[in-house]
Amino acid sequence: MKKILALLFALICFTGFAETTPKELRHIVTLKFKSDATAEQIKKVEGAFRELKNKIPEVVSLEWGTNISSEQRNKGFTHCFILSFASEKNLKTYADSAEHKAFVAILRPVMDDVFVFDFWSQH
Predict the structure, then answer these.
(1) Share of the chain residues as helix, strand and coil, in percent rounded to the nearest 5
(2) pTM of the full predicted structure?
(3) Domain 22-120: which CATH class?
(4) Residue 13 or 83, more confident
(5) Are the CB atoms for 108 and 33 separated by under 8 Å?
(6) Residue 21 DSSP code
(7) Which of 24, 31, 101, 107 is positioned for an S-S bond with 79, CB 3.0–4.6 A?
(8) pLDDT band for position 8 (cuts 50, 70, 90)
(9) Side-chain half-sphere of 8: how many Cα atoms within 13 Å?
(10) Which strand (E) or helix (H) includes residue 11?
(11) Residues in CB range of 93: below 8 A, 6 or more apart
(12) Which of 119 and 10 is assigned the larger pLDDT?
């Protein structure tokens, strides 16, 4: 009986923990560069975007990568950045920050298009 109660207690604790895992607001940015953008310019954009994590404390995490899909359905978008935030207020602070605006100034001359998608993570 003690083993069953201990197992039941552990199950309740684990289930409760899983349900209280905080959701995060994901901000996904996919980029398409102009055909005449140089490799050096693209590297500069990559570095500047990655640095936003260190410059803006509201950014919980930042992941990024380039498209490797063999399906050829990326419509010319080559780069994806996924940022996480604790709240919509924090996302707005990020978007309105001087650091983000400085990044956009680096990006704009070489960007052909951008696709942005925000959502609350579901567990």
Answers:
(1) 45, 25, 30
(2) 0.81
(3) alpha beta
(4) 83
(5) no
(6) S
(7) 31
(8) very low
(9) 5
(10) helix 2-19
(11) 56, 58
(12) 119
Q: Is 37 exposed, middle or buried (0-12, 13-18, 19+ CB in 10 A)?
A: middle
Contacts of residue 53, defined as CB under 8 A and 6 or more positions apart, other chains included, come to: 59, 61, 62, 83
At 4 the pLDDT is 47
Domain boundaries, the chain: 22-120
Dihedral over Cα of 65, 96, 36, 40: its sign: negative
Query: Distance (Å, rounded) from C-alpha 67 to C-alpha 76?
Result: 10
Task: Give the pair of three-digit tokens for residue 86.
Answer: 């604790």
Helix (H) / strand (E) element for 31: namely strand 25-33
- On whether the CB atoms of residues 29 and 77 are closer than 8 A, the answer is no
Asked whether 103 and 114 are in contact (CB, 8 A), the reply is no
